[in-house]
Write a structure and sequence with these properties.
The chain has 570 residues and is an alpha/beta fold. It has three domains: 136 residues, no CATH class; 237 residues, Mur-like, catalytic domain (UDP-N-acetylmuramoyl-L-alanine:D-glutamate ligase, 3-Layer(aba) Sandwich); 152 residues, Protein-Tyrosine Phosphatase, Chain A (Alpha-Beta Complex). Strand 21 and strand 22 form a beta hairpin. The relative contact order is 0.08. The N terminus is likely disordered. Its EC number is 6.3.2.13. It is an enzyme of class 6 (ligase). It comes from Psychrobacter cryohalolentis (strain ATCC BAA-1226 / DSM 17306 / VKM B-2378 / K5).
């Protein structure tokens, strides 16, 4: 999506002016960051950018930065970044297209090699034959605007973009709390925004379920936008007076440094389970990407790390946070563990949960507090502990926080209850085996009858998790309905076949297979008894179903409401 930002500036600026405007006493000022990184880029460049070339670019006036050649305005600076799915021809087209309008171009890719390459599968590894050096250099010089190869531009691009925004109109940026992990990011970020708003702060959120001031979110297309969109959004929230921004930090966003330059003060880790292995090579690489959020080398404003010690991958986050000398607080649902925030006792009901909270800070201060939460599910207790810890890290008293917890609302599509006269019908985003297991385990404690799970798996994604999803559903639910999710370009029946691998006869007897998602939801509504709980999992807040590159209107909560009406259950 396109984020709401201020109008493009008509006032030009030079890189030199941005550097001069940077505070010299700021420990991570743009002057220091830019000088160090550009010096490294010059020294590492195979064609040795000269000081004259660098000075020429530094003093060229421009309006703003742009990452999309299609949106480039005259006299913008175009930043050409590598793609995760490399395509030399496409990158070269972007370069040529931008060169006609840009004031100058900063390229993460070696432009000489790109111009001289006709067919290479991965432009990150392009090498230039010795006999082509002169020809490539001639092609580069012939372009309508200067192009500089800056291989480490991601190390300071966010800082550079924010400096440009601030140069036009300085604003006070919100304090940033960032949440990472496979599951829980959306709920925790929205709970943080609610808690801070209810205790007197002006808050905003950025993530999967939407971006904007809390209560007025605009749908997002990515969990973590590109670095330009993220910095523009941060700036816009500052202009609107937001004091706090709670955002989701995806592993993709962290790995690609889309959050570089964000003033993250508090970092939260939830959990790690199989997901995104179509992007990351393995779970170790996935965990390492998440751990970057707790590294002060990447986020110099960090003060606190809040980490779920019930998760098996927590240690790498703890080690990284301790190495950065952060204040480290932990949280747990295990009453026998030693953690900063512990749910010593949890009593579930269909109205929510009652929690006996025990806190133990490093200064020896211990407290016991009874909390009533309207959020369903055991894992939402963990989400609440993380959000409360973040609010305490901001200086809000625990008692003040506890007093407003009963007013909290769950995130849209996260354990969202759809009203009915009988039975209990839930829409949830759980789309990984671990998330589905947690949702079902949590709902089982509330269930008097049978627990139903309606879910599928997305197409064009990690096929290895498909049978794992089916087994997670069968292990946690009494009745399972397998259906389509977002098939994308795959045949839904083929996806369903993958999900059924390894199923036993007994499991088949508890399973109904219906490729059409609407029909699957209607089947569950018509078959579920008055004491049953039905969870429609996998899509949550999404309002579409993607089939063969087309997004059709499809909102699980709306489909479920209509099915309940047709069945006379509302």
């Amino acid at each position: 999506m396109t984020l709401s930002t201020s109008s493009p500036s008509s006032i030009t600026v030079t890189l030199q002016q941005l550097l001069a405007a940077s505070s010299s006493d700021d420990r991570h000022s743009l002057q220091q960051v830019f000088t160090a990184n550009m010096t490294a880029a010059v020294s590492e460049s195979s064609h040795q950018i000269t000081a004259v070339q660098l000075d020429a670019v530094i003093n060229i006036p421009f309006q703003q930065f742009c990452l999309d050649s299609r949106q480039l305005a005259s006299n913008d600076v175009f930043v050409l970044l590598k793609s995760h799915t490399p395509n030399c021809q496409k990158s070269r087209d972007h370069l040529y297209q931008a060169a006609n309008n840009a004031a100058f171009i900063l390229s993460e890719i070696d432009p000489r090699a790109l111009l001289n390459t006709t067919s290479v599968s991965n432009h990150a590894d392009i090498t230039l034959p010795n006999d082509s050096t002169a020809k490539a250099q001639q092609q580069l010089v012939a372009l309508p605007c200067p192009v500089l190869h800056v291989p480490n531009i991601r190390d300071f691009l966010g800082t550079l973009i924010q400096a440009r925004l601030q140069y036009q109109q300085p604003v006070t940026l919100p304090t940033v709390i960032a949440v990472t992990g496979t599951n829980g990011k959306t709920t925790i970020s929205q709970l943080v925004a609610q808690l801070t708003q209810l205790t007197g702060m002006s808050s905003a959120v950025m993530g999967t379920a939407g971006n904007g001031r809390f209560g007025a979110l605009v749908q997002a297309s990515h969990t973590t936008g590109d670095v330009l969109a993220v910095q523009q959004f941060l700036y816009q929230m500052g202009k609107e007076g937001a004091e706090l921004l709670a955002l989701e930090a995806s592993s993709h966003g962290l790995d690609q440094q889309r959050l570089q330059g964000m003033p993250v003060s508090v970092a939260i880790y939830t959990n790690l389970s199989r997901d995104h292995l179509d992007y990351h090579a393995d779970m170790a690489e996935y965990a390492a990407a998440k751990a970057k959020l707790f590294d002060k080398a990447h986020f110099p404003d960090l003060t606190h790390a809040i980490i779920n010690i019930d998760d098996e991958h927590a240690q790498i986050m703890l080690d990284t946070a301790h190495a950065s000398n952060l204040t480290v607080w932990t949280y747990s649902l295990d009453s026998l563990k030693t953690a900063t925030f512990v749910a010593a006792n949890i009593t579930p009901s269909l109205r929510g949960v009652e929690i006996s909270l025990r806190t133990d800070f490093d200064d020896g201060t211990m407290n016991h507090l009874d909390i009533v939460s309207p959020l369903l599910g055991r894992f939402n207790v963990a989400n609440l502990l993380a959000a409360m810890a973040a609010a305490v890290a901001l200086g809000i008293s625990l008692e003040h926080i506890a007093a407003v917890v009963p007013q909290l609302q769950g995130a849209v599509g996260r354990m969202q209850r759809v009203p009915s006269n009988d039975g209990c019908f839930i829409v949830d985003y759980a789309h990984t085996p671990d998330a589905l297991s947690q949702v079902l385990a949590s709902l089982k404690t509330h269930c008097k009858g049978q627990l139903w799970a309606v879910f599928g798996c997305g197409g064009d994604r990690d096929a290895g998790k498909r049978p794992l999803m089916a087994q997670a559903g069968l292990a946690g639910a009494d009745k399972v309905v397998l259906t389509a999710d977002n098939p994308r370009t795959e045949d839904p029946n083929a996806i369903l076949q993958d999900m059924q691998v390894g199923m036993s006869t007994e499991q088949y007897q508890r399973t109904h297979i219906e490729p059409a998602r609407q029909a699957a939801i209607e089947y569950a509504v018509n078959q579920a008894a008055a004491d049953d709980i039905v969870v429609i999992a996998g899509k949550g807040h999404e309002t579409y179903q993607e089939i063969n590159h087309v997004r059709y209107d499809f909102d699980d909560s709306v489909i479920l409401q209509n099915a309940l009406k047709q069945a006379g259950r509302v």
